[in-house]
Amino acid sequence: MIISLSGPSGIGKGFVKEGLLKLYPQIQELVWFTTRPLRSNEQQGGNRIHVSLLEFNQMAEFGKLVLVQDLFGHRYGLRKEDLLSSLDIKLTEVHPDNMLEALRINPKIFAIGFVTFDLSLLQKRLSILRKTESPVEIKQRVATAVSEMEIILQRKLLFASVIEVTEVGESLVLDKVHTVLNHILNGKEDSHVSKNTSG
Q: What does the pLDDT look like over 134-153, one tens digit per residue?
């Protein structure tokens, strides 16, 4: 089973991901290949593997990578065999642009989307909490966030749950995701679109 999280930079996907990995020790992260240099809090071989642009392009050309995305000057891709894995419970982030392709490859992906109507929340999180992007990169990410969230809302039926993130309700987001996944992981639901909730 694949669980995917989608939403713009700064929405809290990383926070939710870390929380889920603690709540459910049986969940493993899918590994993405990227040309982006690893951040200080990332390790090679964790959920990111840094490769050269040449190596990435060769892997993509030979069909070894899917969901290939160019974001903020770097390339990202996932091994197709990993996306098809059904033996274990896997967790990953999927860009909203790639959600349709991801579901074509594996229709059983359980997709959770995150949106906010408060762009200042994203700005604050990226500049104060993350501290890994320059002011120019933060501005680009916030500007891109609008179109990313529009895609999630337009394709809401692709998602098992779309959760609105607000500054007041920040601490409740993980609880909402946990509630949705608790049903799935306990076998109470088996369709990726059987329940669509929003916060």
A: 788 888 888 899 999 999 99
Say whether pLDDT at 1 is over 90: no
CATH topology of domain 1-29+88-199: Rossmann fold (3.40.50)
Residue spans per domain, the chain: 1-29+88-199, 31-84
User: Which fold, 31-84?
Assistant: Guanylate Kinase phosphate binding domain (3.30.63)
Measured distance CA(61)–CA(143) in Å, rounded: 30
Confidence band for 88, pLDDT divided at 50, 70 and 90? confident
Burial group, residue 193, by CB count within 10 angstroms (0-12, 13-18, 19+): middle
Q: What is the dihedral of CA 66, 178, 9, 160, to 10 degrees?
A: 50
Same fold, 1-29+88-199 and 31-84: no
Please tell me the predicted confidence (pLDDT) of residue 143: 87
Length of the chain: 199
Sign of the CA dihedral with 37 first, then 71, 28, and 52 last: negative
Could you read off the pLDDT of 100-136 as tens digits, one per residue?
Answer: 999 999 999 999 999 999 998 888 888 876 666 778 8
Residue type, 119: L
Spatial separation of the C-alpha atoms in residues 109 and 98, rounded to whole Å? 12
